[in-house]
Amino acid sequence: MTGIEASTSPPPLPRWFGPRASPDDPAISALIARVARGAGWADIGGEFNLNVRIDAEPPLVLRVHRPWVRRGRVAGLRRLRERLGRTQVRVARPIRISGGDLLRVADRWAELEEFIDHVQPPAGKDSSLRLFEELGRVHTALKAVWEPSPPEPLDDHRTLGQLRYSVGFTRRRLGPGSEPVVRRMRQLTGELSKLGKEVELPCVPIHGDYKLGNAGELPDGSWATFDLDFARVRERLYDIAGSLNHVAQSGGLLEPRRLLDAYEGTAPEPLTRDEHRWLPGALALIPLHWAATAGLVGDGIREAESAMTAAEAWWSRRGELSSYSGGRARTD
What we know:
This protein is an alpha+beta fold. The protein is built from 12 helices and 10 strands. It folds into 2 domains: 26-114, 2-Layer Sandwich (Phosphorylase Kinase, domain 1), CATH 3.30.200; 125-321, Aminoglycoside phosphotransferase (APH), C-terminal lobe (Aminoglycoside 3'-phosphotransferase, Chain: A, domain 2, Alpha-Beta Complex). The chain is globular, with a radius of gyration of 21 Å. 37% of the residues are buried. The model is unreliable at 1-7 and 327-332 (pLDDT under 50). It holds the Pfam family APH.
């Protein structure tokens, strides 16, 4: 290979990234058979983790994590779910596996939890309002039981510096044809950096990926909360902005002010004035991250362009969005 060829070859994915676990992997298949003990089972999805419903009595969920997840992180989240079980927020109860909390399989950590029978709330305006009411309740519960906190998860866009690294990696992975969308990423990142220096944002325990796909409606009408894999302490507006983006994608987006009001009705604290100022930046940051990590997650230029269009659309509304201020907003 010549020097020119080497310089134009896309960089390999990081060794730690690793694919989602597969039930076809002999080690994983053996673990499923060991846990199921002849009962039926089904892969019930999950973008990052393999989640297998075991049709035992009572039914269970076997979760096999991605390679990057550390033992301390998984164990810490199990203890967090146990504490959340004493609050109004319904989460899956951890169950021991082979006499312990966790099991090592195929260079990954595996765990068991109860299966909560539920239906996913349908996309729509009513579900969107309920989602933000529940998000406020989740934040209230997390605040009450967070300590001791679990170890931090892998977070590749906690800082704008990390985001810039992801943009560069995607540029190298997708090649010269990605340069136009990469320029858009870098321009927006610079504009967000300027605004970010002007605001002070409260950091609290957050869910990290709260959306209809991670909620379930129970027979009594209450909701359960799933997938705490990205729970950590960071700007709470990150959680709100993530939920708003998912609602927009599902077609259930109402006037954002109505959703923020629903959140503030159940949240521990109202949004601050700086949070209202940062709202358009927080909303743009979510799809900007999707665009920046396109080369890491296997998306192409088209997906990166689509994400950037969404990011720029939020940012273009900054005059409108940053002016939102409900009656409960603090003045400090």
